[in-house]
Amino acid sequence: MFAGRTAFRRLLILATLADWGMRSGLALANDWGMGAANDKIPPNNIFTPVADPANQISSLAFFVLGVTGAIFLVVGGLLLYSIMRFRARADDQGREPAQIYGSTPIEFAWTTVPILIVFALILTTVRTIYDVQAAPKPDGAINVRVIGHQWWWEFQYPDFNITTANELHIPLSDPRNPTPTFLQLVSVDVAHSFWVPRLAGKTDLIPNKLNTMWIDPHQSGTFLGQCAEFCGTEHALMMFRVVVESRERWNRWIAAQREAATQDPSTMRGRQVFESNACINCHTIRGTIARGKFGPDLTHLMSRETIAAGVATNNLQHLKVWLKDPDDMKPGALMPAMNLGDQDVDALVAYLATLR
């Protein structure tokens, strides 16, 4: 009993810390203007799926909830009836009531019925797992490699030679002509978990292991995602967005992302600041000498809605704060402060502002 109480206390402490961490992360994100930006995005309601994997998981959840709810009502109703019907009365004779031990029909019933219920739940669960995880990849499917970092997301499109960060763009999938997106998920450091509640269930990203999943959204829009596996200090601020758009708009986005970085002579000073500091060791900007792989690809930085994995809206003011001291915006961030002077920061921000 003591061990059980200890385990319960530990579970309660972990749940409290997780809740505190998530609330703290969201509060910090709202401090940097994300509250107003997120108001424009449909809420992450798990009961309103817009893709087949999420819809199948939701249907299974409702089925299990219905079965277990019915069991609860039957058992609770019988318990309540027994309490009321056989409660102690003043005229009771104190004798033991009639026993049903040895009644073959009753014992057979309360053994067989639970077995049948569990068997039905197992069958439906296995069928859903098979439909979601063993779905064949059709011709024309979009391939994306998702890489989890502490604490940001990298999205690679190998068929188009495109790499972006924290915003996954995919085309709308017409049920009459499905165009699903198949994701390969890996981690370069610790365990992460990819979760967009309205599109699919959670899938872990494990170091040295390749996991896969797929999504086929039937509704355009922007859907919020979150790392669902505690991965370190900034786990709560490891967010991302999935932008679902028509095939035409998605094709235009692909074409724009394949272009090299803009070369604006008026921002040459900022480019020199970027290339003469350690920025090039971590970041890539196509068309320049920057070939770093530790941080996000910045070739089209300003085409993204957020910076720092969803912590702040992407504007010049927040870029300046981020460049001066990343830890001020995202405590624990692995990006170091470069200790640049104000003039160098202004020039660097002006250069980054041209990367669209």
Give a concise summary.
This protein has helices spanning 2-31, 34-38, 52-85, 104-133, 247-257, 268-275, 279-282, 316-324, 326-329, 342-352; strands spanning 142-149, 152-157, 162-165, 167-171, 181-187, 192-195, 203-205, 211-215, 221-227, 239-245, 306-307, 312-313.
Q: Summarize model confidence as the mean pLDDT.
A: 85
The quaternary organization reads as single chain
The class by helix and strand makeup works out as alpha+beta
Q: How many helical elements?
A: 10
CATH class descriptor of the domain at 265-352:
Mainly Beta
Radius of gyration: 27 Å
Number of strands: 12
Sheet with the most strands?
A: 5 strands, mixed
Distance between the termini: 61 Å
User: Quick one: CATH superfamily of the domain at 265-352?
Assistant: Cupredoxins -  blue copper proteins
- From the coordinates shown, what is the CATH architecture of the domain at 265-352? Sandwich
Strand content: 15-25%
